[in-house]
Amino acid sequence: MFMKEIHSEQVEKALSVLKENKDSKLITHLNACVHCGLCGTSCMYYLATDDPKMMPAYKVDIVASIYRRYCTVFGKVLPSWVHAREINEHTVGEMVDALFGSCTMCGRCVKHCSIGVDIPYVVRVGRMMLAALDCVPESLQATVSAAIETGNNMAISTPEFVDTIQWMEEELQDELNDLEAKIPLDAPDKKLLYTLNPREPKFFPLSISAVAKIFYAAKESWTISTAMYDITNYAFFSGDTEKARTIAQRLIDEMQKMGCETLVLGECGHGARAVRWEAPNWLGITFDFKTLNLVELLGIYLREGRIKVDKSLNSKIFTIHDPCNISRNGGLVNELRFVVNQCVENIVEMNPHGEDSFCCGGGGGQLAMSEYNERRLKTGKIKADQIKATGAQVVITPCHNCVDQLMQLNSTYKLGVQIKTVAEVVADAIVI
């Protein structure tokens, strides 16, 4: 268990997260849970372990118990009567394991909660408290620090990034037999500014050339910024709102500097959510530009006939994995399926899928937390079994964190499938 000496000044910082809450949302959700246990059947961690401490209700209760201890009369006078807990080394150790190590913040539990408690919201508040206590798991904190210090979460240098893009541009030109096929870098006043998950230039560069092929076919005006292309924001998961705000502001500043009309949110579920839904609240602004998820943009191209596709070029058996922050929490369940159905002949859905889909197990910062690798892969067996049951040969998902987790599940559970992004599947179906 995570153990660290807790000092009184850190406790005060953590309590300020609770005490400075300016509306009733947190208090409502902390007091609403009736401990019915329905959330347990929705949670991959509880289903995989049968451990009551993995239940979403337990995660709510550990935050609520601290609230009761420091913010209610009975908690201050008779803490044992209301099961109130002190912030100490033991409590913090349990919080780290429950809120960081046993939750992807996927939101599936909310769909099954009889009261509608926003459990991921409470988990994030708990993570904010742990961030104030300087108790974020080391590997996740390193990812956030890399983004702050270098501009991307994988600390890719600008020359390395440019070399990768130029390499992909050459591959694109060879494929299309056209030296005018470009991946434009730092080109101002284009219509679209496209963002990436840094896993793409580091590990999956063909995803970049796939998007470039689509933009070429659509005759799109677009560019990528070498200074700020990273759509991810792991500070959203670490609970450090100040760093989350800094990362978001950098992308907004770059968008305005480049003079583009639309910010295209690349294939990263939490990144798209952090930019589109969370950043305006963190920054207290309304964007003066449009934002589009890549899935939405592909839907526009297909409806308007800007790209021509032949689904017979994707003739294998496909299934779709729904990223939690794109489908359940992002509202793109149907749009994702529209795009895929235009480009694929044979789709077999997982059961369940769509808004009720199970998380792959890589979200919530889990992929960045090596401390919990064994648990992450164990809980991911639920998704692996779903994939196996479809008989699919290819799994499609519009999120590179999901891609990485699914590839590890593919190896661990010997699924024998290919994992592809939506852009790669659309690019494979394009007829130039």
Brief sketch in words of this structure:
The protein has 432 residues and is mainly α. It is 52% helix and 6% strand.
Gyration radius from CA atoms, angstroms: 22 Å
Query: What sort of overall outline do the alpha carbons produce when their principal axes are compared?
Result: globular
Q: Widest sheet: strand order?
A: 2-1-3-4
Number of helices: 21
Kindly estimate the percentage of residues that lie in beta strands according to DSSP.
Answer: 5-15%
End-to-end gap: 56 Å
Helix and strand pattern: HHHHHHHHHHEHHEHHEHEHEHEHHEHEH
Mind telling me the CATH class of the largest domain?
Alpha Beta
- What structural class do helix, strand and pairing data support? mainly alpha
| Helical residues, percent | 40-55%
What is the second-level CATH architecture of the largest domain? Answer: 3-Layer(aba) Sandwich
What is the total number of structural domains? 3
General description of the model:
This protein folds into three domains: 8-135, Fumarate Reductase Iron-sulfur Protein, Chain B, domain 2 (Orthogonal Bundle), CATH 1.10.1060; 141-301, Rossmann fold (3-Layer(aba) Sandwich); 308-429, 3-Layer(aba) Sandwich (Rossmann fold). It is built from 21 helices and eight strands. The chain has helices at residues 8-19, 25-32, 44-49, 56-71, 73-77, 89-100, 108-112, 119-132, 138-150, 158-176, 199-203, 205-217, 235-238, 241-258, 269-283, 294-304, 333-343, 373-379, 381-390, 400-412, 422-429, and strands at 192-194, 222-223, 262-265, 290-293, 317-320, 346-347, 394-396, 418-420. A four-stranded parallel beta sheet has the order 2-1-3-4. A four-stranded parallel beta sheet has the order 6-5-7-8, with helices on both faces. Strand 5 (317-320), helix 17 and strand 6 form a beta-alpha-beta unit. The radius of gyration is 22 Å and the shape is globular. The relative contact order is 0.11.
